[in-house]
């Protein structure tokens, strides 16, 4: 595949350029009348659409929940700006990413704890792993991708696991 084809193939995602960051930041700040830094679904949709990501309602709800680092139930401008690389990958692979994340986050609390992941990896099905292999994989993933070492994978950590292609497909 040539470079040109590769560029065209990825045109659905927005370009995470300095310019895109500035556009997003400018829109969000101009909307933030009371200076709280909170961003609602409409505002999120508007700023993503301005840089070429037409997010569905499901995307918007999912991102609002999973990028909420401080756990106050809302997105702040800073949480968005700090996680634009995650949003960029979500723009491209959102459907697959959400399906994969939800498969592992069975209790729906927005995080994948190690035992949860182990249980899914060794669960009955076409991709069932031996317990020893699954433990080895989990150790490897924990070492490389649980960046804040809290014993669970957030969505931003999970997108890197997904992109690494280390999970059984
Ligand atoms: Ca928040
Ligand atoms: Ca969970
Ligand atoms: Ca973590």
From TrEMBL:
Sequence ranges assigned to domain EF-hand in this UniProt record: 19-54, 55-90, 92-127, 133-168
InterPro entries hit by this protein: Ca-bind, EF-hand-dom_pair, EF_Hand_1_Ca_BS, EF_hand_dom
Keyword tags: Calcium, Metal-binding, Repeat
PROSITE patterns: EF_HAND_1 (PS00018), EF_HAND_2 (PS50222)
CDD domains documented for this protein: EFh
Molecular-function GO terms, alphabetical: calcium ion binding
Protein's recorded name: DgyrCDS13211
Organism: Dimorphilus gyrociliatus
